[in-house]
Design brief:
Elements lengths: L1 H37 L2 E3 L5 H7 L5 H4 L1 E2 H10 L31 E6 L2 E6 L6 E4 L8 E4 L8 H12 L6 H10 L6 H25 L1 H5 L7 E2 L1 H8 L16 E2 L7 H4 L15 H9 L11 H13 L13 H14 L1 H4 L14 E3 H4 L4 H5 L2 H7 L18 E3 L21 H4 L9 E4 L4 E2 L4 E2 L5 E2 L2 E2 L1 E4 L21 H11 L3
Antiparallel strand pairs: 1-3, 2-4, 3-4, 5-6, 7-8, 9-10, 11-16, 12-13, 14-15
Helix pairs in contact: 2-12, 4-6, 5-7, 13-19
Amino acid sequence: MNEELEQAASPWKRRFIVLFVLTVALPLLIGLILQRRFGTDVPVDYASPTEHFKYGSTGGEHEMGFPYWIWRALPEICPQYLPGKGYQSLGMIYEKNPDGSDRDVPIGTSKRRYQGIDRVFVNCAACHTSTVRTAADQPPTVVLGMPAATFNMKGFEEFFFRCAADPKFSKEYILPEIARQGGDLDLLDRTLVYPVAIAIMRDRVLALAGRFDWVFKQKEWGPGRVDTFNSAKVIFNFPMAHLDPKELDAPADFPSLWRQRQRKEPKEMQLHWDGNNTTVEERNKSAAFGTGTTPPTIDLARIKRVEAWIMDATPPSFGDFFPVDRKLAAKGAPIYQQYCAACHGASGSDFTGEYVGQVVPLTKIGTDRRRLDSYSYTLAVNQATLYAGYPWRFTHFTKTHGYANMPLDGLWLRAPFLHNGSVPSLRDLLEPAAKRPRAFFRGNDVYDPVKVGFVSNRPAANGAKLFRFDTTVSGNGNGGHEGKAYGTDLSAAEKTALVEFLKTF
């Protein structure tokens, strides 16, 4: 009897097992496989704080990241939209592997495994790292924290916008190029993941291009500059076509990042060129928008690692690259104390001074006003909504009416000078505006130790054309910071001594 019952139950038992496998176990297994494949969110990390600064993530790959192999393929797919070979032609810096080959991504680019794909996007170092050469035939030295004097941000943006609109931005062209470069895509990547990713990236970049259409209508920025706050207006969906024209064409130089602690302690300085914020951490989170982060996706832990490094990072000294005439510099020291110290600090490491970190009214400083006008009261109000609901909601942005007096640490590496980079050298800055170069070339990393600035009188370097900077173009004015109070009336000998002293900063 029991045997008959067991035989009768066994088909139902088998059916139950099959049903359980099909409806529970198999979907669970597939779910676990998919979760393992597409549910990861793992950035590439670096133990060294400097390596993290160069290649670590800020979280921008979540929203803005390009699939790694698409990033690699695009310069070969759309070379006509680049000024030369690869991302190097935009001024991005590739370090070498031990075998002498280039690293797979340039400095200022991070990588993160997210939703089943390795993604890359820019980080802080893209705008705050450059190279210096002591002569045209000498190798470049990478300097972290200095303004990215060779990086063409506008060209970088336009490359992706134009490439996305090109018919070759398709799986039919990109997948073969990935294979040619040795891309290790598996069957699922080749047949599903990357074809879908290519289509999504094309649509997203084209949608972004529509919002950033104003970029194409701007006058060229040139390397080392960015129109920071007009880009911010896009985040808030400002009607860019209807802005007051005086707010446009407002590119400014990338700043340096050294000695941030001294800009915070013992007293907070007014930050950004126009002094529109007084909190280093809030300024950093604002800058992180430029690396693709958003309030839900920002990687605060890894940004804090960058913050910790820049707090006490110091610039290399001029004397590490070129000799300094100490006797002549000593003659320049009292001239500096008389004309410069109150606004710019006692030295390159001592920021004490009555007006250091404070805004000087435009009516007094007299420099080009476009960058100041581009940051409007309306934008400041909108920025106060950023990170709403978070403990670090923005509360310190404000509209000012001038430009902030900056400390001069690493001054020699911050050429060209003034907020818009309109004066090529320190020696030129000590001349009245009428005697400053009306046009010069930007983007060279060969240094002129006499005038204290990058070589700017040659139209090409290393076989590549340099950017001709025209000071008559709107936003590029080289006037201001002149007159007796600013040292432009000093004798030639006094100016030479002052410049020599400034080499010690």
